[in-house]
Every structure is written in structure tokens, then in C-alpha cells.
Write a structure and sequence with these properties.
heterodimer; A: 369 residues; Rossmann fold; 2 domains; 7-stranded mixed sheet; 5-stranded mixed barrel; 17 strands; 28% helix; B: 152 residues; alpha+beta; two-stranded antiparallel ribbon; 5 helices; 8 strands; elongated
């Protein structure tokens, strides 16, 4: 272990490296990794209606990346809209070149100063220790980690967020920090910072006629009406709180690691028929743990909805935060917001949401929509 | 000082005015804020580029209260917004009262003046941790960060 990021001679060598040059060098490394691993392993997904290919150099990363996306898996596609190449150094024995930047080049959201321009976006997720690079022109992303074993559970629960967010936002699709549950005819977003009750609400709905799209991250599009797209089919819950949803206890995928991790549910395995890839957004709910027994809705202002949704989204993600904020501002102007006071009787949660959706549906029918 | 104008501290600060409420985000500090009622109206005046004096005149015409009290409250709010680096003093001194009036938050629907309530800036700092840059001390032999994951 050394205490500096880059030796001075290396820094001088790379002082003038352009973002595209860096991308191409990393791309070449991926090629070496793929060859070393005996070829690539392809997986295809349909995310927000767009074909995405994940191209793995070997199989080491598959169990860390693919389970969360399993509900969106498709067959091979000739010309995917986005390709992401994934590799790790440990299993392929291909060492990544040293980073051509300095310690003070790490910026908010993991962006690397000097390695972000209109075409290339370079991000290092500290903690995950993953490099994500996107070439917008070629619709090509690269994801690298030194070793698969270092990927934490929360990254496996919502993998490739940075690349998906940056690429989708070009297409008017915003990755948001929100849960989403509903019916094919329409559903609700669950917004608020961590610990507000998004996961409890979303997971509680698996025990009802409601469908699940997200408990943490999903995609928002405005065409033609506000629509949510599922991206990850995982669910997470604080380990000390799993007893609130007894029907979920047997579905915890990491029961042996609850001392250090949240409980993780792989819903494409345990509730495959309860996952919905998209639905129109009818309302925004701001969950709040009330402490009482009953669950109830109370109208909230659009500004309250925006304050619950936007900061926790934009501060977690790289890229154009102003544009993201405006996109979410547009959403709260279009659908009503409510505070969802969560009671201890979790069975009431889906009932209250269903009541709202049926009322909304009837109201739309009577208006001839 | 009365003719002083301010602008939103863009691009560091973004905001949305919706139904007479304002949500403001300082993208660099990681803080966010909300303003309602008189606070939202003062913000709207700043956004429209009207002067401190014009903001005050609008408030006095809309609200029932001692002008001196209203003036003090408006000045306090402007000072607070400056301290939080949400607004900065405008460099130009031009006025366009027609354009400026066009975007005002509608508060005159009721011909009777409302009682003046001092504006309040609600500040939230619960997101700033997401923006704190941890110094990168631990790197591996190739120079890549080797920081242990934090629980999320």
C-alpha cells in the first residue's frame, strides 16, 4: 500500500492525456481481458424500451451484476443501443494502467476533473473502487474493478448506475432515487431520503395485488405522460427491521451477512410475477413513519414532493444536476403529491395505495380520459 | 442600497417555483431550502431582477403591516439569502419593470391586504454528506483507490 495516487513521473507522462485517449486505452485493456478470458459472455436487457448489451470478459462479474437486472433480460440483439464492457483484473490477470490523474482530481459524484467532456465521462466510485467510463458518441461504456470480491452488496443491488444514468439522461430519461409500485394502468412513486420508508412501502406491496418496479432507483420519462421504468429488481431492508415484513423473511438472499449488510431480496427469483417493467405515474407519495397503527394519505404540495425527490437523487448522481432538477420539477407539476403516513400495520399500506389508484382511475374515466 | 439588485447564484444554485412555493438547491454545498408565502415572493422578485426597493414596495402594497417592520424583514431575508450564497449582488443596474412584474407570484387576487408574516428560510443539510469528498489516502500498488466500502 502506498500513500499517493500517482508517482510524479507518471503524472508528467499523463499530463496531457485527453479523455478520449484514456477511454481508448481502457478499451484496449478490456480487449486484452476478453482475450485472456477466452472470449466474451454477453447478456442482453431491455431497459426503458432500449436494448442494452452487457459484454463480460469472463464470468467472474456475472453474479455481482446480472441478478438485479434479471427481470429485464432479453435474447440477443443485433444492434444494441448501448454496450457496456465489464471486466476485473483478478480473474483475467490483466492489470489496469495507473490512473492518469491526481488525488485532488476526484470531484463530487466520483467525476474525474480533466476526464469529463461532452463525449467522455469518467467516474470512479470510491468505496466500490469501480471505474466507469462512457463514450456517448459510440454508445459504449466500460466498467472495471480490480476484483469482483470487492463489489459491495449495494452495488450489486443497483449496478452500473453511473453509466446508465449518464447515457439515459441523453435520451430524456432520468434515473431517480425513488420506489415505484402500481398497476399496469398506473402507479405511484415513493420519494424521500434513505430511511423514510420507501423500501418498507414498496416491499409491503408485494403481498397485495399491486406490482413492484423499484424500492430505491428507477427511471423517469415524460413521453407522452410521466412514466416510470423499472431498472433493478432487488429490494433492500435494514437488517434490524426485516421482521416488519414477515412474509419476506424467507426470501432474504444474504441471511448470513446481516451483521454487516442490509437484507437483500432478489425479487426476480422470489416474486417474478409481481414485477412490472413500466407504468404511468399517477401520484407521488412521500412516506413518513408515523408511529401510529393506521396508514393514511394527506395532500402535500408539489414543492414538498420535489424537496423529497430531487436532492436525494441529484446528489447521488454525476452529470448535469440542473437538468435533472428541472426534469423532476416538471414531474411534480404534472401529478399530485401526498404524504403517506406509514402505520405499524403494514397490511394497510397497499390498501391505501390501491384506494388512491382506483379513485384516480375512476376520476379519469368520468373525465373521459 | 435601495436600488441594489440581486441575481440567483447560478449555476451553483438551482430552483423551482411551484404554486407559490420555492425549492432551492445549492449544488456545491449540498444544502437545499424551501420558501413559502412572503419568502417565496421575495425570491420571485429577485428572480425577476427587481430592486430591493421594488421588492419592498410590492410587499408593502400586498400586506398589512408597519412598513418599517416589513422593510426590516425583507432586508433580513435578503441578507440570509446572501449569507447562504443563494443570491449575489447583480453586476448591472438596469431595470425592466414591465418584464419584472410579469413573473410575480400572484398574491393580489384578494383585494384585502393580508397580515404580514415575516419570511422564513427553511434549510436542510441532510444531503451534504453525499457531497463530502473523502480524501483518498488508500491506494493500491497501481495507484487506484482502495477504500473500504461504507454501508449504504
Amino acid at each position: 500500500m502506498i500513500n499517493k495516487l500517482l508517482l510524479p513521473d507518471m503524472a508528467a507522462k499523463n499530463a496531457r492525456m485527453e479523455p478520449l485517449e484514456f477511454f481508448d486505452e481502457v478499451c484496449e485493456k478490456y480487449g486484452q481481458a476478453e482475450a485472456a478470458g477466452g472470449g466474451c459472455v454477453d447478456r442482453y436487457y431491455c431497459i426503458a424500451g432500449l436494448a442494452v448489451r452487457l459484454r463480460f470478459a469472463g464470468e467472474a462479474l456475472l453474479p455481482y451484476i446480472t441478478p438485479a437486472l434479471a427481470h429485464l433480460a432479453t435474447g440477443p440483439v443485433g444492434e444494441p443501443a448501448l454496450t457496456v464492457c465489464l471486466w476485473d483484473s483478478d480473474s483475467t490477470n490483466i492489470v489496469m494502467q495507473p490512473p492518469p490523474w491526481q488525488a485532488d482530481d476526484y470531484r463530487e459524484g466520483g467525476e474525474i476533473r480533466g476526464f469529463v467532456d461532452e463525449r467522455i465521462h469518467t467516474i470512479v466510485q470510491i468505496g466500490v473502487n469501480a471505474l466507469s467510463v462512457l463514450d456517448r458518441e459510440r454508445n459504449l461504456g466500460i466498467y472495471w474493478v480490480k476484483t469482483a470480491k470487492q463489489i459491495p452488496y449495494y452495488e450489486s443491488g443497483a449496478p452500473l448506475r453511473a453509466i446508465f444514468h449518464l447515457w439515459m439522461s441523453q435520451r430524456g430519461i432520468q434515473l431517480i432515487h425513488a420506489g415505484a409500485v402500481g398497476l399496469p394502468s398506473g402507479g405511484v412513486l415513493l420519494v424521500g431520503k434513505g430511511g423514510s420508508g420507501k423500501s418498507t412501502t414498496a416491499l409491503a406491496c408485494l403481498n397485495s395485488e399491486l406490482f413492484y418496479a423499484s424500492d430505491d432507483y428507477c427511471l423517469l420519462a415524460h413521453h407522452p405522460t410521466p412514466t416510470v421504468f423499472s431498472i433493478y429488481s432487488t429490494g433492500k431492508k435494514n437488517a434490524d427491521d426485516v421482521g416488519r415484513l414477515p412474509f419476506m423473511v424467507s426470501h432474504i438472499s444474504n441471511p448470513d451477512r446481516l451483521g454487516t449488510e442490509k437484507a437483500v431480496y432478489l425479487l426476480s427469483e422470489s416474486f417474478p410475477d409481481k414485477l412490472l417493467p413500466s407504468f404511468p405515474i399517477r401520484a407521488i407519495l412521500i412516506p413518513r413513519i408515523s408511529g401510529g397503527r393506521e396508514t393514511a394519505l394527506k395532500p402535500a404540495s408539489p414543492a414538498a414532493g420535489l424537496a423529497a425527490l430531487a436532492p436525494s437523487t441529484i446528489f447521488q448522481l454525476p452529470g448535469d444536476r440542473k437538468k435533472g432538477f428541472q426534469t423532476m420539477g416538471q414531474l411534480v407539476r404534472q401529478v399530485p403529491c401526498y404524504q403517506l403516513n406509514l402505520g405499524t400495520d403494514t397490511g394497510q399500506i397497499p390498501e391505501v395505495i390501491l384506494d388512491l389508484l382506483y379513485t384516480n382511475q375512476n376520476s379519469c374515466r368520468s373525465k373521459g380520459h | 442600497m435601495a436600488s441594489e439588485r440581486f441575481t440567483i447564484n447560478s449555476p451553483k444554485v438551482v430552483h423551482e417555483i411551484i404554486d407559490g412555493e420555492v425549492v432551492i438547491v445549492h449544488l456545491v454545498k449540498g444544502h437545499y431550502y424551501s420558501l413559502v408565502k412572503t419568502g417565496a415572493e421575495i425570491w420571485s422578485g429577485i428572480e425577476r431582477g427587481i430592486s430591493r426597493k421594488q421588492i419592498l414596495e410590492e410587499m408593502v402594497s400586498r400586506y398589512d403591516g408597519e412598513p418599517a417592520e416589513i422593510e426590516k424583514a425583507v432586508n433580513n431575508m435578503i441578507e440570509q439569502l446572501q449569507e447562504e450564497e443563494l443570491i449575489v449582488v447583480a453586476q448591472t443596474d438596469e431595470s425592466d419593470s414591465t418584464t419584472a412584474a410579469a413573473g410575480a407570484i400572484e398574491a393580489n387576487a384578494n383585494p384585502e391586504k393580508l397580515s404580514f408574516e415575516p419570511p422564513k428560510l427553511d434549510k436542510y443539510t441532510d444531503m451534504e454528506d453525499l457531497l463530502l469528498l473523502d480524501p483518498i489516502h488508500e491506494v493500491d500498488e497501481t495507484g487506484w483507490p482502495n477504500v473500504k466500502p461504507a454501508a449504504v
